[in-house]
Each structure stands twice: as structure tokens, then as C-alpha cells.
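agent> call fold_tool(seq_1)
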Amino acid sequence: MARNIMHIGRLPDNTLVVAHPKISSKHCLIKKIAEGEYLIEDLDSTNGTFVNGRRIKQTIIKPGDELELADMLIDIKIAFSVFNLTSLAEGINYGDLKKQETISTEFSKLKAVYEKYVSDKKKTMTGSTLTSTGLRAGLSLIPFVGNALGIVATGMTGNVQAKLYELDEKFKKNYICPVCFKFLGNEPFDNLEKRGTCFFCKSQWKKEL
């Protein structure tokens, strides 16, 4: 079952552990009172709890608000994600969650990288075919152009190959695991998403709720 209350502080017995020297051992708690609405309460912390720049004792906080514990800005989206975790174990590390959020965000960008690569490659191949066909049709109406036609066709093929090589090289640089940075090959993004982990470093790309 999902939790509805979360304690935040420096010690490992908190629900969400924020390992920062200015964070109190038991800094604050957040209670889910409705979907998208939460109550936050400062637990007499030394350096304070701030919502949208204002120090609070207790107030309603919601997605989009700015949360700061002492002088550390907390990503509210990451903090709220704890409420969706099915595990009730204590000691979830904020740093680990933030790292996983970054990995998930970077991984999701690979979809656009793959789709652009496929689209650009298709346009290059299609454009080459159309241009080559049109040129052949035009030159065939002119006498004694057999050799010229062969030269032009060869040149065009070279240009297409150069463009495809450039696309491939760019793809290899960008279609990489966000953790180990190894090229993920030509495997479609949908397949990577279903697998969920890197074949090389075994890192998990998506958060498990």
C-alpha cells in the first residue's frame, strides 16, 4: 500500500533521508491529505523549513511550490514521488532518488533521438532516389550523355553515402546509456523502454513505483 505520511531528516530512520549537515535529524514531515494536496509541518528544525521563500511551521504545499530545508532546495516532484512507492521501508535516500530522476529524464530523451535518426535517414534515402530518377529521365533525352550520366550518378551516390555516414556518427554519439554512456546500437527505443535496463551496466532507466 502507498504511504500517506513522510518524515524528512538527516538520520536514516526518516522516510526520506537528506544527508546534509544543516538538515536536522528530524527536520519536517509531509502528510498527503488529498490528491495533489499535502500538509507540511516543520519539526522544530534548527535551520527552518521554507515554502516559496517563507519560513513556515505548518502549511499546505502542492506540486509547483518551492521547498527549501535550511539552505538546500528540495525537488518537490521527487519528494512527492515517495508517496507512490509501494515499499514502506524507511531510509529512502534523497540523493539516490534525484539521481534516478535525472537518469529517467535523460533516458526519455532518447526517444526523440531515435525518431529523428530514422526520419532523417528515410528523407536522405528518399531524396536520393527521387533526384537520381529525375536526373536519369532528363539526361536520357540528350544524345551522347551515357558517360556523363554515370559520372553524375556516381557523384550523387557518394554524397548520399557521406550524409548517411554523418547521420550514423551523430546517432552513435547521442543514442547512449545515460549512466555508462555506451552506444545502444540500432535497437528501437520502444524495445529499450520495455527492457528497462542497460545491457552493458545493468542500470535501471525508469523509476519503479
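agent> call fold_tool(seq_2)
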Amino acid sequence: MLAQTMCYNRPDAMPETLADEIAACRSLGAFHDLLIARGIHRPGPRFVHLELDITNRCNLRCVMCYHSFESVRRARTVHMTPEEFDAVAARVLPHAYKLTLSLGNEPLMSPHFMPILRAAAVYRVPEVNFFTNGLLLMDDSIDAIVESGVTQVCVSIDGATAATYNAIRRNGDFDLLVRNLERLVARRDAAGSAAPALRFHFVMMQRNIHEIVDFVRLAARLGVTELNFSHLAAWEGLGMEGESLVHTKALSNYWLEKALTAAAALGVAVPFHPQPFALDAATVPSAPAPAAERPFLPTPYCAYPFFHVSVGPGGHLLACPFSHGEPPYGQLGADGPFEAIWLGPRFTTLRQRILTNDPPDMCRRCTYLSNHYPDTGSLFATRSQAERT
């Protein structure tokens, strides 16, 4: 995903100088031109991935998810209106190569899902997708998905059998999900379209890792073209720390290898998956390592704050799509227009720290980086409910 817009490890990037130049940018155009010239962005008019939640609700209470907290269930419902979507879209989508209509919640719970889909189609963003549990797919929403140019539907499924899936995805119905996806594929095929493609996501944990190969086979049977695997992110208070595969590294490596082999044999791509654990490595302490030993790529070690715009349903901007649990970096309207926040001091400081290999605490417990550096214990740290936004 990052390779579409980002280049890495350019020796001429001069991180300290580049950080100062980024801090002087006052428009998306200037920001883009600078990063093209310095080897961070590739040329092209579209360089932004906008990912935004259009609601803060979910119909499930998955055992590993913050939606299992009563405080989250009782929170005031917020739905992004079509007018609020238009205010963000007008500023960002002309620069976007990708739009994702979800950021941790269930977009099909929004009463505005279909109007927002149709509003987004006006901008002709090359890639449009959303993450869903798929249980609320109805005939009218399926028609809107096919007709509005959605290119990919990303479905979170953490089991290959009804027993495992229903136990993890509480309030879920495995058989209903399979029927919904079969209807979506049938409607797409009847329209003579290749879009939307299907992508499945599987959170690897102790209770489901033995089904990962059968999960690959299920995906192939349903016509899925891509799979993503990721490690569990544990939230404090849900009692899921023991489910992490960091405790059974050999088991994790064994099943992951078998799943990747099965996917290759069945012609299903797996663009994102964890790196294997180093089985002979000493246990890595949870405390941050000295700066010279931090296992992050240089210049930059993470590309997300340079091209990815993450917006919550109330118009708050997050540091990145993996920063759930961190305070927002600004509120659209209250803190000014989009550019004033995304090119403002908080994002500038974050980008400077990334460019100078000085990761903040947020990065040291990042679930995205944990899949790249599975032998760094701090990246698997339990997330605090008190910090969740």
C-alpha cells in the first residue's frame, strides 16, 4: 500500500533539513511538491489516502475490540452528515488516490452511508473502499456499492467456522455473513463488473490460528482476491493479553507459513502480513531500546503521516489510522480548516520525529509496526482504555 505513493531511504533526503522545509509548507500543493522533490512522494496529481469514519457505532462486540467496552456502547451516537462529508471531501478528495469510508467503526450503521457513497463518486477517486463486518449488507446498500464505483470491500472475518467466528465476533452470524457476501458477488457479476473486489482481514490469535489455512480456502471459494493478516492488539480491561501469539512464536510462524503457501497455491494475494518471529532471539524487553537500536526504518520509518489523512466522525483528525487510543490532533472547524491542522505544529512535530528517527510513545506501541518488527516487545504493549478517543 505504501509503495504506491512513497519512496524510502533516499540518501539525499537530509532528514533534519527536510523536516524544517515541511514545517514551512502552508498548502497541500506545496507539501506535495516538496516531498516529490525530496524523494518521499512519487510524482502525480493524487497523493493522499483519506480514511474517515462516517459513524462511531458498531453492531458487534468483538472480544478484542474497544466496542466491547460499556463506555463505548453508551457514548453519544455520532453520524457524519453528507454536508460534513462534503466539507472534508472538497478540500482533500481532489488530491486523493484512495478513499476509505471507515476507520474502526461499522460504516453500514450510518443512515447516510448511501448518500455519502454517491457524493464521493463525483470526485472520481481511483480507489474507493471501506471496512465492514458485512452483516448489514442489504439489497439497497449492495446496489449502491456496485453502482457508485466502490473498488474494494474489506471484510473483517476472524474464523473459518461458525463456532470460532461467532465466539470472537459477538452478535455475529457466520452463515448470514457468507450469504451476504455471495449476494454481493452475484450482484456485481450480474452487472458485468469486476468491482468491487473482496478483501478479507484476519486478526491472528491463540483461539483462531489453527483455522487460518481453512480461512484462506474459504476466501478463495468466495472469490476473494486479497487477504490481510495481522497480530492482535490487546486493550486493557478486555483480558485478551494471553491471546497474543507473541507467547507462542513457533506456533504463529508455523501456521502463518502454511497460510501463505495455501494462498499462493490458490492465487489469492496477501499484500500485508506479519513477519515471522525470530525463534532464537532473546526476549526483547518492553522498555524502549536506545535510539541507535530502535528497529525503525530511516527517512522515514513510517510513511503514514506524510500521505494518510485520518478523520473521525466528529471531524477530529487522528495522527494516523493506527492511533486509536491517542488524542486527536485537531478538530475541523474548531481548530481551523483541514490544511491548518494537517500542516500545523502537531503534525509537523510528528513528522520531524519520524524523519529524525525519534519515535514518540505512540509509535513504540504501534500495531502496524508490530507486524514488521515482531521481536520488539514494546510494540505489543496493551493499549489503555482511558486514552481511547
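agent> summarizing second result for user.
Confidence is low (pLDDT under 50) at residues 1-13, 281-295. The chain is about 35% helix and 10% strand.
agent> awaiting next instruction.
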